[in-house]
Amino acid sequence: MESPVSANSSGSSPHSDIRVDTFMGLPCNKRRVESTETEIGRKKKKRKTQTLKIGTWNVRTMNREEKLENLKREMDKQKINVMGLSEVRWRGEGEVISGEYKMIYKGGTKKEKGVGFIYEKCMDKNVVKVLVKSDRVIAIKFKTDPVDTLIIQVYMPTSKPGTDEEVEEVYKQIEEVIDENGRGQVRSIVMGDWNSVVGNESVSNIVGKYGLGKQNERGERLIGFCEASGLWISNTWFQHHKRRLYTYKNPGDRNRYQIDYILTNQRYKNSIINVKTYPGADIFSDHNLLLAEVRTKLKRVDRKKKTKKWDTAKLKTDEGRIFEGNVEEALRKIVVNENIKDEWNTIKNSIVEALEVTVGKQSKNARKEWVTQDMLEKMEQRRQWKNVNTDEGRKQYKKMNNELRRETDKAREQWMQKQCERIEELEKLCKIEEMYQVVKTITAKKTNVIKRQGMKNKNGIITSDLEENKKVWVEYIKELYDTNANERMDDVENQSECEENRIGQRIEISEVKKAIKELKNNKALGTDGIPSEALKTLDISAIFRITVLINKIYDTGIWPEDLLRTTLVPLPKKPNATECKDFRTISFICHLTKAITKIIMKRIERKIEDNMGDDQFGFRKGRGTRDAMACVRMLSEKMLEFNKELYVCFVDWEKAFDRVDWNILLKVLKDIDINWKDRRLIRELYKGQKVVVRVEDEETEEVVIGRGVRQGCCMSPVLFNLYAEKLMEEALEQSSGVSVGSEKIKSIKYADDQAVLAESEEDLQRMMENIHNAGIRYGMKINISKTKVMRMSKKVTEERMKVTLEGKYLEQVENFKYLGGMIYADGSCTKEIRSRIAMGKTENLEI
């Protein structure tokens, strides 16, 4: 550091604002102060929608439990809209919603460095995109008038030897962000901890005369960057007391510096109304909050409001009985309608109206459960001592910080103890699902992805426009699920062609009650807006009415439109996902649809189970991934024990569940003697389903589906198992596989995760060719780049396997992660055991 300013620039009393009765021992005109405050309040009210408060702050760390709550309180006090953060020190990247604020962050693999933003949650609809460059550069772009605003948060390396290359890399990243977003076409605000001193001498139209200290080498580099990029260092152009200019102070408050800056492009510098620091703002950091008022306003963005969850916890109280009575009374007034659509609407409206009257919607906690009022009071007391520039003041400040830490640790420990007691109680009551929900609450990590980084269209161009992104998703879904195939779906044969005992029996009320009881709680709503908890609360008369409706659907094959509609929500599988294939989707479907499909599944699963081979471990009772892994390992151990080699191909099917041919599936269901009405109901469910994709809280147009099993449907796993079983049965009928006594083991399967087994490379080649050809007939496709082969042997040989598909060699590997566990070519498990122990230790430390 160079050229600090004098440390003696604040009062001797614990004040955080100069507008008080006394300042530095001098009396102030209180009436005038009150008048000024009223005047300022009036001005603020008048320009509320005309200005944004944008700040930057080096918070030193966010790893203390109380820090986020502390930060939110300061945001509230200063009425800040967006704040950039340096030195966050959170690992990885992600986003966090807390009360009325949303935070996005990017860190490294260690608890060092890190940058982020925290902004008002209501501004989320104006976010065009988020750009994550590194743990030193992050950016966010907002829709504002008259042009969009791009805010870049920076955390420059400290002035240590050997950091010059890293500094240049940071500048390069900043330039990339500016160029990617149309240099000069947006209002660019680049801010943060620059660890530079630009000095108090004016430099052209870049540095004003209200800087502090003497320019250093880093400051010269910053000025050069500003000159090349057409930027203006705003906080050096506004005249304020020095206590409103410095941004950093040494330990003990010996020296003060100006090293944090807010830069903006020259073209829009007139939109910066004022910039100054707020030394009274406190988060136990050696940096001051730097805040700019920007003359702009958020563009009006009309988006559908998020649907709030029902407060279903009230259904377990007296409100549940009131709800039950309201539904019963509403349904009693309306006679049963023969029209399926009208009858469904009657039931749906009765339940939804009763929910609105009795339970209402959930309200989220603005802060974490363990945050106490004592903690908040301690924060305020510490804040009062921050700027008392005496030995006693600094002593009291540290004392209050220590007390706050102890209070925080105590509060969190007590909350954790209660949660652990709750877990033990739920375990004794065998409420395993609820127990895991509490465990998840304790161990929950921050969301590990940052959304809204734009989508790549067919031309390879990344677009941030919402309507364009919706079109990208519609095109992807149409191609993935082959919309045109919907028209080619065959009808089931006429009912008259079936034997009487193969048509299907009437659905009983006991089946409906059991299916509803088995629905899981706390699950997302379908398009009908009815939670599973509400269905479980209904009395017998309402369940009877629903049973009548379900039987009409079963007898006619006609589904109400609500029950056919699925909402897909994309979730990124990796950071910086910009293509649809980089996302996985989860499905929101109506809970009554889930109940009906549960009933049908119960009726068909026995026949499907009878047609399953012993080598299928997926979605079957009493079997799981551990059993499949154990079979592969034990088989390899036995082969190696007798000095034999085992040849394995780990097959990767491309979008396996989404490529199921409906006509073949219906034929297979007929071949295994599934009842006619069950087959017809499945056929109408698949043919009539419509999908919308939820993109940034808005939905795309409806898309018709033409293939694949339904996401989120309880029947899908068993239907896919049956489909895959018939494919592999046809492909490997003439294959020998591996001999174990009198048995022939040809594969180990867990749904679409399949390990094909052979005793020689030639046999494996023939088996893979047969599987490949059968897959084409069944509409499936092997992902050649992800399909691997392995030779399990005691001998170490340089000779490589030469198994091919479509003229391409399959990659040979020495180890492969199968169903979550590592399989090694030498048949050992030593490395896997060590890895598991290390993972367990890591998770224990995280808790």
UniProtKB/TrEMBL annotation:
Residues 552-823 form the Reverse transcriptase domain. This is Craniofacial development protein 2. InterPro entries: DNA/RNA_pol_sf, Endo/exonu/phosph_ase_sf, Endo/exonuclease/phosphatase, Rev_trsase/Diguanyl_cyclase, RT_dom. CDD domains: L1-EN (cd09076), RT_nLTR_like (cd01650). GO terms for molecular function: catalytic activity. Gene3D superfamilies: 3.30.70.270, Endonuclease/exonuclease/phosphatase (3.60.10.10). Keywords: Coiled coil. Residues 61-88, 750-777 form a coiled coil. PROSITE patterns: RT_POL. The keyword Lipid biosynthesis does not apply.
